[in-house]
Amino acid sequence: MKRPPSELSLRHDYLKAEIKRMFDMHEGRYGSPRIVLALLDEGINTNIRVVAKLMREMNLCAKGYQRRKKSYGQNKAIEDVIKDNHLNREFNQTIIDRVWVTDITYIQCKDGRLYLSTYIDLTTRIPRCFKVHTNMKKHIVIDPIKNYKGNLPEIIHSDRGSQYRSYDYRDLLESKGIIHSMSEPGTPVDNAVIESYHRSIKRELIYPNKNKTKAEMKVLIHEYLTNYYITQRIHTKFKMTPMQFENSIQDGNLILCK
Hints:
Blueprint: H1 7-25, H2 32-41, H3 48-57, E1 99-109, E2 112-121, E3 127-133, H4 139-147, E4 155-158, H5 162-165, H6 167-175, E5 179-182, H7 192-206, H8 214-232, H9 242-250
Parallel strand pairs: 1-4, 4-5
Antiparallel strand pairs: 1-2, 2-3
Helix pairs in contact: 2-3
């Protein structure tokens, strides 16, 4: 009872304060892996085991996190490469804007449903263009490309949704000189990167704000995709923000990520 706190106890108290600061700074979106990277970036030496343990003690959990349930009896993804799947699950690209991946996801709001169509660069994982709309007709996938002012990719990979099979979408890609790659039916793993990307958006932004109206949600999505996700959120694949990773490639200091 009279013994003073140990060095380990004092160290943990200090880390708890820093973890809480980082957790609050990112509005509860960071779990232990990203908090570790953020602390290391500030020169605070720790590891994921310690941070995860202390977060459990503090009842801190990233927004929307759920433990994955085991699944049994599910068919394995079909490995055969079909003719028009030009990506062939080669997700580790090294050339900026060579390949984009795209998909549509729904967003539940207080006053109804919105749909988000996003195109991300497979090399940097930066969302290049997107559209939020009240329906998911073909223009939700056409307008982002038509209105984009930057460099367009060589290849765009999507699933086989009706919007991507439309004549207008096909003609648009052909007019831009873009090769259209499509996943094989029933194999979402062919488009795993954009699927994971949309899951992150829903877990960190959509689910915690499902009581927002459509108008409010559009503002939140725009801020998240154009600012926070690109310049502030550490990507665990790169161990830095997507913008920092893109700059490292452009500066010739490419960091290989497996």
